[in-house]
Hints:
Blueprint: E1 9-17, E2 20-27, E3 32-37, H1 40-54
Antiparallel strand pairs: 1-2, 2-3
Amino acid sequence: xKIEGFPNWEFKVKxxxxxxxxxxxxxxxxxxxxxxxxDPDDLLEQCKKYAKSTES
Length: 56
């Protein structure tokens, strides 16, 4: 999914098993980050924070 404010990033959130989620982000330049946990919104926020930190 595309998120406003992150034009160079693609984000994904999926449920990998019951109640466990995986969120990942990949930049156009090939940077990849992935988090696993039980709160998909929090995981997506972690991805966004990481993406923002790499563009500073």
